[in-house]
Amino acid sequence: MVLVFLWLIVAVIVGTFVLSFGFLKKPTGRDRNLQNPILQTQRYGETGIYKTNLFRNPSIIVCSPELCRKVLTDDEQFQLGYPLSSLVLDGMPSDYISGSGHKRFHRLTTSSLTRNEPLSLHIGSVEEIVTNALEECSKMKEPILFFHEMNKIAFKVIMTMFLGYATDDTVIASMEKSFTDLFSGLFCTPINIPGFAYHKAVKARKKLVKEIQGVLGEKRERKRNDPNSKIGLIDVIREAEDSKREKLDEEYIIIILVIFLIAGRETSGRAATWATMYLHHHPHVLQKAKEEQEKIMKRRPSSQKGLTLSEIKQMKYLSQVIDETLRRRTNVFALFREAKNDTHLNDFPHIGSVEEIVTNALEECSKMKEPILFFHEMNKIAFKVIMTMFLGYATDDTVIASMEKSFTDLFSGLFCTPINIPGFAYHKAVKARKKLVKEIQGVLGEKRERKRNDPNSKIGLIDVIREAEDSKREKLDEEYIIIILVIFLIAGRETSGRAATWATMYLHHHPHVLQKAKYFIPKGWKVLVWQSAVHMEPEIYPNPKEFLPSRWDGFKPKVGAFLPFGAGSSTCPGAGLAKLVISIFLHCFIRNYKLEQLNPGGPVNYLPCSPDPADNCPAGIIKIR
């Protein structure tokens, strides 16, 4: 309690000083172009926060674990800020995009997709889809575009899991074509005129929704004729109820499915592509992963036909391979948020009148024509803050100034030889203590009188202590309370004043640290959580450019340091589903196939949304068993 109280005072003093008196400077230079935060770090220093302009919006990029965690988990100050167009959200109430509706939607979908039972029911069929697709790819006489094929497999898996395994392959192929056209228009200028990609995407969305509605209609008919017919995840979501026993409308469920396709196809397809490429570029990692899979297969009962959830949970090393892939090739270039209010990052705690005291005192110091004794002034500020917080904000400034003089004389005698004779410091301190106690008693008397006349008058911390009772329901005498206050003054003034002095001096001597002190973000500004910068931070991940699945042995990153699926209320509901699909794909691939890239080490596209092989990874799939 005492440490928190003292830290609070130091934070207010230093924070107000930094904000009010010019130490904090924003980095100079152009801010109109989106730049790699790693390059920004080299240019501006490791501030962890940068300003840019993106999608014609002033934007803040955050790339330190602490700031990322703050932005993603503080729902009071930040909301979803994705620049998604009506191509995706048309018909979705704004409340579902952010606010209580979004929380309800997130809760329903998360509960539906994280339960083991629904997921385990789909493992066999997912394995069958992957096996058949890889077998078909291996028979191709010409090289395939591996990234495209992975996206096709991911799309079919997701659609089949959601809509059910009775869905016709030709229908899924048609929906995949519609979805690809829709996805191509997501990041285009919204010009809805024939010949433009956006217009094509609008038409594709209408067609895709119509196709999904057709499948759902067939499912309802099938369910009426056969109540025991197999269900898909979309049925689980449709039947899920929130705390008010309300279900989602089918219109919203279709939009949810489109959102899952955008996130899921890209996440699963991209991660499976990069994981396969990394494994084949690192033979020792591939060998270790393959050995793990073979051990799992050897333990399998002869009567068992395919993978089980229990076996997938045994794939510890493969899970590390996936995590390392997601670290190296984060699925999106940033997570978008938007400031709901004028807000601050790296904020200091502020308590109204305390901030006012500090601000006024610093303003007065800045007007001095002669140099001040900074340490003395910090002690004065700390004393006034403590006395005001304890005795109440109605305490007269002249009374506090007099008490500060008495306290200074008292403190000067604390470490002197106790010679109580006039002329000695100890004697002066004894007299100062008596005077200080008398002054405090006077203030407490005035407070009692004020309380009688106005029961709603503001109280101080000393009133809280006075009303507190111990386990025997006894209260402290005023004499003891005054002694407690003197002890707080001795500890608090010195601790707060000294710490504020040194902290300010250190900040002044270390400008790069000072830049982190506090940043104001206006309402409506975009805030981009740049996970790739966090994932490449050497202090968290030594040798970050190396692909090292073994780094995850017994390693649990601190909160905000590993964000492939976001954090807080915006964590991707399908994170577990994505890792499940990737695990099944890699299990099938590394045991039975090898990848022969035509252009190993080819270029990478990072925009418009994520790191993709620029050439789509032309390769041959060779069957080895």
List the helices and strands and how they pair.
Layout: H1 2-20, H2 37-44, E1 49-54, E2 57-62, H3 65-73, E3 78-80, H4 86-89, H5 94-97, H6 100-113, H7 116-120, H8 123-138, E4 144-145, H9 146-163, H10 169-184, H11 197-225, H12 233-239, H13 250-281, H14 283-298, H15 309-313, H16 316-328, E5 335-339, E6 343-345, H17 352-366, H18 374-391, H19 397-412, H20 425-453, H21 461-467, H22 478-509, H23 511-514, E7 519-521, E8 526-529, H24 531-535, H25 575-592, E9 593-597, E10 604-605, E11 612-613, E12 618-623
Parallel strand pairs: 2-8
Antiparallel strand pairs: 1-2, 3-5, 4-12, 5-8, 6-7, 9-12, 10-11
Gist?
57% of the residues lie in helices and 8% in strands.
* Helix/strand/pairing category: alpha+beta
Biggest sheet: strands, sense, closure?
Answer: 5 strands, mixed
The mean pLDDT is 79
Computed CA radius of gyration, to the nearest angstrom: 32 Å
| General shape | elongated
User: Helical element count?
Assistant: 25
Helix content: 55-70%
Percent range for β-strand residues: 5-15%
Cofactor: heme
Organism: Gossypium barbadense
Keywords: Heme, Iron, Membrane, Metal-binding, Transmembrane, Transmembrane helix
Protein name: Cytochrome P450
Mind explaining what this structure looks like?
- This protein has a five-stranded mixed sheet, covered by helices on one side. The protein has a three-stranded antiparallel sheet with strand order 4-12-9. A two-stranded antiparallel ribbon has the order 6-7.
- Residues 18-35 have low confidence and may be disordered.
- It is of the alpha+beta class and 625 residues long.
- It has helices spanning 2-20, 37-44, 65-73, 86-89, 94-97, 100-113, 116-120, 123-138, 146-163, 169-184, 197-225, 233-239, 250-281, 283-298, 309-313, 316-328, 352-366, 374-391, 397-412, 425-453, 461-467, 478-509, 511-514, 531-535, 575-592, and strands at residues 49-54, 57-62, 78-80, 144-145, 335-339, 343-345, 519-521, 526-529, 593-597, 604-605, 612-613, 618-623.
- The protein is built from 25 helices and twelve strands.
- The chain crosses the membrane at residues 6-24.
